[in-house]
From TrEMBL, chains A, B:
Keyword RNA-binding annotated: no
Domain Enoyl reductase (ER): 15-329
Keywords: Oxidoreductase
Protein name as it appears in the record: Enoyl reductase (ER) domain-containing protein
Recorded superkingdom: Bacteria
Length: 333, 333
């Protein structure tokens, strides 16, 4: 049989296991021009929360009682397509199913000899590209500048901070527990890391870690953490807005201090993006990331959950900050 | 005698005449290397409100019991400097005094034969440059796009809208009375203008005026008007933040809906600026504005108050929206 995870109920506020439902279907038989894929690794990402709402956004919402989709690495187990053969591994936006057919559209072959398979969902996949392109195309960090990243121990944050260091910045990370603080300053060589949950005065902590002010703020979280960073931005600061995980589960429109006065006073630029905005730069960005990874100048960190049934829980754990680096579910071999 | 207007008390919230004090001094005698200047036209501008606070910003605050400064056109009445002679007219950041000396630093000679003197404070001065450079460098409007401008009947707004039309945009202005609505659509050829004070549902009015969404929002006001425009921005919208007059007199940090989610969903760019950020482009921008003005493709509109003693009241009138176009005080001949 073939397990499939559906969107069962739309969440109000924080999602829970009740929003998902696992059903069993028959394993499909690929037709002419189709592949049969077996899921190996599933990416769970904060942005999926937005697709669970019935709201217009940059991608359509998930439909009720239809499978959730996300980035998946799968193995080709049967092929009626010239370009793919049994035993190939592919990456693409696929359904949360153990087995599924595909026409091959939107799939990219990935090579398990060049890098471990899970890294194609992380540092060599969407999160690595998001970190690299958001930072370089919008943040435009210059040597000697100060870069602050929130959600610093997450999939994107860990890569942003490391690239900031490679580009000669002073890097300060904001994260939610002391173990992650240690990870950021040791494994990832951040200059400072701040635990926002235990720091009594976040503004003061940022001021103390960034005596020269903040030139680039790579924002993964939004909300009060970002307010505290904005209090210390320099003239001409650049603020890539990559995510707003602290706001995704709000049921009312979240309110906060208006930003126009500070952007005006500091001639600062705040720009939202999704990685598809930079699609033309994926090949060169992937080459750069792979080169740094092979040279050992970039560390990839993953939190791997095990088992198809645990995909929803792994997704929910993102909102509790339980992951270090990229959260991935290992489903098969 | 020589009247001078000082900052007497810092305003809390909305400023009033009590914040200013007029004193009389002797007319100074220029020394070697100095000019004696007689004030002719005084520019009053919303941004001066920020300098009345004792707060760090992009320019230092005015000092208590010292003269206010703003853009001024003055006549050289005595000169001990080679580059200036009696009868020349100059433009510069000068004190609210009938007469003052200057070393010539920061002064620009202006030619009353090329354009009327007051226009060097408006369409050929700081406000024209602000409109042109904010729009073209940040807004980057493309032919056929929709441009919305708030504070549309003000000094900057009237120029932004006209340039938008010259560049082939559909232009919608937001303003505060019906007379201004008419001015914008007749004299300045805006496609639509909205009176935000009488429109029962500003969001709906913007939606109706901008059926293809908003590509560029030139923001002079901030606050709830901007919230309504932001509800209709398109993917990749550009939002130059030029002013926030609706927030300048707030005594508490103004609160509003957080912007990160909408900037993220729309891959939109919000950027604050002051005109000094683009100083290297002043010569080419001034040439373009003067050319359009001479060709009759750009209309300059001014509200002129009369008399040195009326400078503070003219400034206060800005916050009541009493001006159409640039607010200027005529002091001498």
């Amino acid at each position: 049989m073939n397990k499939t995870i559906l969107l069962h109920k739309r969440p109000q506020g924080k999602p829970s296991l009740e929003n998902f439902k696992t059903v069993s279907e028959e394993v499909p038989t690929p037709k002419e021009g189709e592949l049969l894929l077996k899921t190996v690794y599933v990416s769970v990402d904060p942005y999926l929360r937005g697709r669970m709402n019935d709201a217009k956004s940059y991608i359509p919402p998930f439909e009720l009682n239809k499978p959730i989709q996300s980035g998946i690495i799968a193995e080709v187990v049967d092929s009626h397509l010239q370009d793919f053969k049994k035993g190939d591994f592919v990456s693409g936006m696929l359904a949360w199913k153990e087995f599924q057919t595909s026409t091959g559209k939107g799939l990219t072959k990935v090579d398990p000899k060049l890098a471990k398979l899970s890294s194609y969902l992380g540092i060599l996949g969407m999160t690595g590209l998001t970190a690299y392109l958001g930072l370089t195309e919008i943040g435009k960090p210059k040597e000697g500048e100060t870069l602050v990243v929130s959600g610093a121990a997450g999939a994107v944050g860990t890569v942003v901070g490391q690239i900031g260091k490679l580009l000669g910045c002073k890097v300060v990370g904001i994260t939610g527990n002391d173990e992650k603080v240690k990870l950021l300053t040791s494994t990832f060589h951040f200059d400072h890391a701040i635990n926002y949950k235990t720091t009594p005065d976040l503004k003061a902590a940022i001021k103390s870690s960034c005596p020269d002010g903040v030139d680039v703020y790579f924002d993964n979280v939004g909300g009060e953490i970002s307010d505290a960073v904005l209090a210390h931005i320099n003239k001409f600061a650049r603020l890539p807005v990559c995510g707003a995980i602290s706001l995704y589960n709000e049921t009312e429109v979240p309110m906060g201090p208006r930003l126009q006065p500070i952007l005006l006073t500091k001639s600062a630029t705040m720009r939202g993006f999704i990685i598809g905005d930079f699609a033309s730069k994926f090949p060169s960005a992937t080459r750069q990331l792979a080169a740094w990874l092979n040279e050992g100048r970039l560390q990839s960190r993953e939190t791997i959950a095990e088992g198809f049934d645990n995909i929803p829980q792994a997704f929910l754990d993102l909102f509790e900050g339980k992951n270090k680096g990229k959260m991935i579910v290992k489903v098969g071999e």
